[in-house]
Amino acid sequence: MSTDPGAVSPRCQQQLLELSAYLEGDLGPEQMAALDAHLATCECCGRMAASLRRAIALCRSEEVRDLPPAIQADALARVRALLQGEG
User: Fold this and answer.
1) HSE of 22 in the Cβ direction (CA atoms, 13 Å)?
2) What is the pLDDT of residues 23-44, one digit of tens each?
């Protein structure tokens, strides 16, 4: 057992890697059942699943809007500056 509060067990790591596919219904029946069982008993992964469900629902419920040109230009300039600083 790790003393690091941010540490995730190897079993949980694998489950979390499959979480998005699970929520989209893209796993096979056996994988779905295994992840269902894990989420029912693992509080941490259950919270992650609930959080991701809310985020997905929010993304699907919002209409797509264009950013104002000034914000687009500022964001693009910041990304370019970051890329130039790394390269």
Assistant:
1) 23
2) 989 999 999 999 999 999 999 8
